[in-house]
Amino acid sequence: MKMSLILLALVLSPVDAAAQEVDDFIYLPSARLVEAVRAASAAAPAPVVATTLEQRSDHASIMVRRTESSGPERHEAFDDVYIVHEGAAVLVYGGTIEGAQTTEPGELRGGTITGGTRQALAPGDVVVVPAEVPHQVVIESGRSIIYHVIKVRRGK
How many CA within 13 A on the CB side of residue 123? Predict the structure, then answer.
């Protein structure tokens, strides 16, 4: 009983901490993000519509709608966090990437993934692809997917 009261007192006691000022706070409602990428897709129909929401040196936030597969890619310094909003696809990850080209420093794209694992993606799924791991979003014919990818620079 005494232990419970002590824990309760610790939880309920005020914390002496200074308020943090936040200048760069961003709130992006999921429904508005999906509406925006749908509108962009309708305005300029294309197999891939990518809308960059934010771009910084240590992270980027991008909404993507795909009706065709991506090419394989591997990022040297960035983890990719995928949040699926609509549709379905398969994420192929791991294995080795062969025949890729360096498109910018630390970025390989193209070629094929050999020996990768296939993971079905559906709305609500969250996937983290660590830096250095080959990956590719595969779309079946006639299907599409809308997802939010957050690219986060790995610490050294």
Answer: 8
Alpha-carbon distances, residue 111 vs 40, 77, 102, 134, 156 (angstroms): 29, 20, 11, 11, 28
Angle at the Cα of 51 (from 117 to 122), degrees rounded to 5?
A: 35
Sign of CA dihedral 87, 153, 112, 109: positive
CATH number of 28-153: 2.60.120.10
Q: Give the side-chain half-sphere CA count within 13 A for 151.
A: 21
State the pairing for strand pair 135-138/101-104: unpaired
Identify the H or E element spanning 79: strand 78-87
What pLDDT, in 10s, does the model give residues 88-106?
A: 999 999 999 999 999 999 9
Give the residue extent of every domain in the chain.
28-153
What does the chain come to in residues?
A: 156
- Alpha carbon distance 66, 87 (integer Å): 9
pTM: 0.79
| 122, 123, 127, 133: CA torsion to nearest 10 | 50
The pLDDT, as a whole number, for residue 10 is 38
Is the pLDDT assigned to residue 138 strictly greater than 50? yes
